[in-house]
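Schema walk-through. Below, the input block comes first and the output block second. Nothing else is stored per chain. Lengths vary across the set, and this one has 310 residues.
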Amino acid sequence: MKYCYANRRHVLYPDANDSWRAAPAAYTDEFLDRTRDMGFDGIEIGIDVLEATGGDRRNVTAFTKRLATAKVPVVALRSGGSLTDGRYGPANQERLARAIKLAGWAGIGIVNGALSAPPRYPGKPLFSPGFSKSQDSSREASLADYRELAAALRKACDLGAADGVTISVEVHQNSIVDNSWSAVRTVEMVDRKNFGINPDLGNIFWVYDVPEETCEAAIKALAPHSVYWHCKNLIRVHHPENERTVFLRVPIPDGEIDYRFAISAMVAADYRGYMAIEGVQSGDQFHGDGKSIAYAKGVVADLDRRAKKR
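--- output ---
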């Protein structure tokens, strides 16, 4: 197993940055040192970071080379958004093509994205996790929706193939790929070697107020189709009288998703990609995220020891 830092907090005194829009300058030597010291093999960044370098090949490669020299290479590039939404789909397809181009320049092997569109119902509980309804869900999707999505993803895969870029679709709330069956359906319809799934169990866990499938069933179904893997954990607080659940994000070993089972399933499927720790969103990120990677490495080591005994 390899480990990627998909940090969701980017705070290190004296600066407090929004991790989703952290500027290239926020990736300081101290931040990279701490990332490496926690034990990560690489880092995930958003396309916005590379665009903020100037977006030309020279600046993009200079930035990613600096991170690689610090032994924290960029191993995954985020570029999300619905590819089939009538209003935003065309722009998101162009953005995805741009991300693939940037990844090719920089030698980044994975371009990952969720397929969510902006909320269309202001004031309605259809975009946040934990309600009884979810905007653009697989429950409401038609086969034509999957055909349209597969066509867009095949085009993206063909763009990335020459540069060794693999396209990863993240199982995510508010998208038609939000559970195991819809993800497997998408893989079958795209039918490209450089395409696969990011089986983010946290997103499956919190789509609805009551999860529609167990994390154990989901990871067993998705492990053989996985090319990248976001990992986060949550504590679920259910309010059945309101058809509402709220979630508290916690380090990997402290939540309700059984990551010993999940890691076991991925190992059994011979997964060779990155386990990307989706970090804590509050508090001391280096303590919380260090705890997460230490737990993950401990589970993998335990599985290896037990395999050697057999």
